[in-house]
Amino acid sequence: MVTSTEVNDEHQFQGIRSFYNGNMPSRLRFCTNDLTESSFELPLIKNNGGQRYNVVTVNHVMEHLPDEPNRWINNWLKLTNNFLLVSVPIEKNPDKYSHHQYSYTHQDLQSIGEGIVSNNPNVRFIEDGLPVGVLMFKKDSLGHE
Amino acid sequence: MANKIISLSKQISYKGLQQVKSRYVGTIRIKENGRAFLAPAFNFSQLDQDTYYKIHLSLLNSGLDVTLDDHRHIADGLFKQVFMAKHPGTSKVAFDASLRHEIFSNTYHLFIKKVKRLLSGQTLPYQLVADKNVSYNHTDLFSQVYHHTVNCIQETINHHGYSNVIDLGAGRSYIAALLDQIFKKMIKYWSHQPK
Fold first, then answer.
1. In A40-77, which positions are buried (b, 16+ CB within 10 angstroms) versus exposed (e)?
2. How far is A140 from chain B (nearest CA, A)?
3. pLDDT the model gives residue B181
4. What is the pTM of this model?
5. A32 reaches B (C-beta below 8 A)
6. Chain A closest-CA separation from residue B168 CA (Å)
């Protein structure tokens, strides 16, 4: 099952609906949501039969949000019972042409990752083998829900 | 600078864009190094889907390196991941301009069809070649990101027999279609592997 979300803009999903000629596979779902809203995860979990997701990916999104990385990552962790992958571009200054609100360095990400796990005893920070600009967390609750 | 804007607008000949040009062409800017971009004030949600892709196509046809958002790189990375899965041992895969062109044009359905052909084992009708114009290799980055993503999926499949995945901020919806096609293939492949 693949669920794809985007900000409150249903328009974004019209292309894929027309691609499948109205016969969207049931394994593919789309939801609109605003990642910056409190309790944003509740409708997404409800959409998944009340279950958290095995894998949550958030690619090149965080740099578009205000400078509260710990808040965002902790929110996204609420969605998963196992893996969370977050990737951002590494840049010295926000790329304003791509609407970036904030920029991250590799050191920033390392510090953010360590801060997250220090406050979440059931979350591990996976570092080995990841490309620069990617954070991976593993939540040890799979099979206990 | 003003001349460049006029030059660009002349190349945008699609009817759909012409209809909105009077409102939006003023937000199109060109940087000194030749990269074009749409200013933050540009509101895609006010455009219909066809017009949106025609704008992409028009800008790409202008011969400029267009920066609209990050998503083309994500799609490249996904596509590369499919290719690597089909051809293990391949160490270097990049994409030619025509492929990227399709991703951000109103022919993006063809791009997805090519992904399907690739997944079904058919040979693509063109060579995948390195894009020398890309200075920062987002394609490789996202290929690695999705490599790790599929590893995570594999682990949860091994544990549960299934995996559900959510991609937050997926952007243009073809990303979801690619994910769907890739994961379907991966899940089918893994289901035949010894645990």
1. bbeebeebbeeebbbbbbbbbbbbbbeeebeebbebbb
2. 12
3. 53
4. 0.63
5. no
6. 5
What confidence score (pLDDT) does residue A38 get?
Answer: 80
Domain identity same for B48 and B83: no
Give the gap in angstroms from C-alpha B103 to the nearest C-alpha of chain A. 12
Tokens of B136: 């920062």
Q: Which residues contact A138 (CB under 8 A, 6 or more apart)?
A: A82, A83, A123, A124, A126
Same domain, B48 and B81: no
Write the pLDDT tens digit of every residue in A81-122: 999 999 888 888 886 655 678 899 989 999 999 999 999 989
Would you call A4 and B166 a contact, using CB atoms and an 8 Å cutoff?
A: yes
Q: Given pLDDT bands bounded at 50, 70 and 90, which one contains residue B186?
A: very low
Contact B169 A58 (CB under 8 A): yes
Shared-domain flag, residues B22 and B90:
no
Q: How many domains does chain B have?
A: 2
As annotated, the residues of chain A forming the CATH 3.40.50.150 domain(s) are 40-139
CB contact under 8 A, B175 and A4: yes
Tell me if B195 is assigned to some domain. no
| Local structure of B91: helix, strand or coil | coil
Architecture of domain A40-139: 3-Layer(aba) Sandwich (3.40)
Decide if B43 touches A, using CB distance below 8 A: no
pLDDT digits (tens, 9 = 90+) for B118-176: 445 444 333 233 333 333 344 456 666 767 877 787 788 777 777 788 878 765 444 55
Residue appearing with tokens 């292309």: A15
Q: Cβ separation of A87 and B108 shorter than 8 Å?
A: no
